[in-house]
Amino acid sequence: MKKMKWLVAICLFLSACSSGGRQITATYDTSTFKDYMLESDPIDSLNYLVTSDDTDFHLLGNIVDGLVEEDRYGNLSGALATDTGRPNEDATVWEFTLRDQVYWVNSQGETTEYLVTADDFVRGLQYVLTPANQSSYASQVRDIIAGADAYYTGQGEWADVGITAVDSRTLRFTLTRSCSYFNSYLLNGGFYPLCGAFYDIVGANFATSPENMLYNGCYYLSEYSTNEIHYVKNSAYWQADQVNFDEGTIVMMENEEAAFEAFREGDLSYAYLSTNEAISERSSYDHHMYLDTKTYDSQMITYNFASNDANFALAIQNDAFRLALQSAFDIYSVFELESTDSAASNEERSDEQVTEDALTKNQTTESYQSTITPTGFVSTTNNLDYVTLGSLANYSGISLYDVSKANAYMEQAMQELSGTVSFPVNIRIPICVDDSSDLAALQRVISKYSETFEQADQFITFEVLMYAQNEADSSIENLVDYDSVMNSNGYDMTVVSKHAEYGDPSTYLGEFVSTGHLNATYMHLEDPIYDSLFTQSHAIVDLDSRLNALAECEAYLIEKGYVIPFGYGTLSYKVSSINDYSYARGFSGLAHFKLKGITALSNCLTVEEKNEFQTTYETNKNSQ
């Protein structure tokens, strides 16, 4: 779970997507994928069995394969396994057959003597379950694999852990519970293979340099340093004919501005733009700049039900109070306030400026969401999207913002809490000021609350708790210590993000039970009704019945106003020479970072070309 920055990248000023000639005329190398990392967010781990950082995945997803992968449409398929697995009747035992004659290669691209075998997956899981290795996947594995928790805590034997190499090409998992979606867990590094014979040689030096690793992915790692990484196509890869780039590089960039400059010179395959740069460069490069999802987290506003402010702690228990706050939150207003002339009304602005605001809303729709689980995450056997099921359909594809409801709930809350709660209720919100746009976005959100509530000054007030993670601007006063605020429950509202760990809505919804990590960290909510609903739903094996039951759980959370979901991923402007719709699609794990199958252009993509790729993609996806 990560602390979520307040609406940073999605709160951008958007230019109109015009068609026309190329404004960037560089030529791009279609045989080399030229990637970059930022000084503020470098690739700092090669250990795919330990790290769960998306930045590391840009490299690791391409040099090591797991049992399964996802295609460009998000469909699960076999990778090192020949298919997506064979569960028993109650899905408590799964078997996989490995591809024949797949070899590990070294950092020179040479085929080693080591075949990828079922025992490599056993050794990988044992590595993850060794506490000294500090794998970020240990808790996930302990939860789903039988005997794993006892082994990890020293109370059980390895022989009792639910993973078995039946023979060199047959792998069997025994689970702690029925799990019809277990194969989606296998996208995560914690279930990836480790060549046991090689590990016995390198020991603690494993994954500390290219020479101390072996590779079975699309590429092998040939050079690794702080400033530059180089990887080369693995000719022994099981599907080498689908790998279009001969090699790839990842170079260090000081910031997004430097990356954009390098892209304009043809030295990178793509680049994201900072908010300020997107605004300043729009007139020069608007034929090429388009919005793209940069991160892949479900984002939501939550409350602290254990707040050390007794007044807020009483108020937040009231349904109407929470629903008033939910109904008054307008994510679209943030975009509008970032438009060309934020001080001007529509009547005072040109038709072109108003049109650009409309485009703002249209382009951000695919990132905006009012459900916790993203659209397209999972479907029923009849191909119905989970978010359209049952009561959850009431929140799918809509905005929760409703001025009339907000004021009605406000009046109801003030009546019900009269004599118990002192109004206005103060709401403390922690905000990181490392990026000034975060604070500006929060201020816009607060301003919109004031505009929406007819008696805002009598209902709520906001207190912004500014903190810094990096060296703070000396002009910023009254900074708070974030850890002290959180540990003392000295906050009332915050924004969090949740990354999917596997392909079932429970990856999100399990966070809200009394023992859920998100709940225990930020919310401290106790609702026995929700706990019971989730427990019952989570126990259902039949896919369609399960999804319908979980949809009711999610609808309950939103109906009660416990959360305000507002987006999936963060959007940033991008320029690129790559067809984004040829990438693997997915919500979790290393696999959707693979370069396998993607196509490149020798020139900078225009918005018009990007839209054509999107149309073709959607047509093909719908015809599956």
UniProtKB/TrEMBL annotation:
Pfam families: SBP_bac_5. GO terms for biological process: peptide transport. Gene3D superfamilies: Dipeptide-binding Protein, Domain 1 (3.90.76.10), Dipeptide-binding Protein, Domain 3 (3.10.105.10), Periplasmic binding protein-like II (3.40.190.10). GO terms for cellular component: ATP-binding cassette (ABC) transporter complex; cell envelope; periplasmic space. PROSITE patterns: PROKAR_LIPOPROTEIN. One of its GO terms (molecular function) is peptide transmembrane transporter activity. Residues 342-366 are annotated as: Disordered. Keywords: Signal, Transport. InterPro entries: Peptide/Ni-bd, SBP_5, SBP_5_dom. Residues 1-21 form the signal peptide. Residues 76-517 form the Solute-binding protein family domain. It is found in: Cell envelope. Belongs to the bacterial solute-binding protein 5 family. PANTHER family: PERIPLASMIC BINDING COMPONENT OF ABC TRANSPORTER, PERIPLASMIC OLIGOPEPTIDE-BINDING PROTEIN-RELATED. This is Solute-binding protein family 5 domain-containing protein. The lineage of its organism: Bacteria, Bacillati, Bacillota, Clostridia, Eubacteriales.
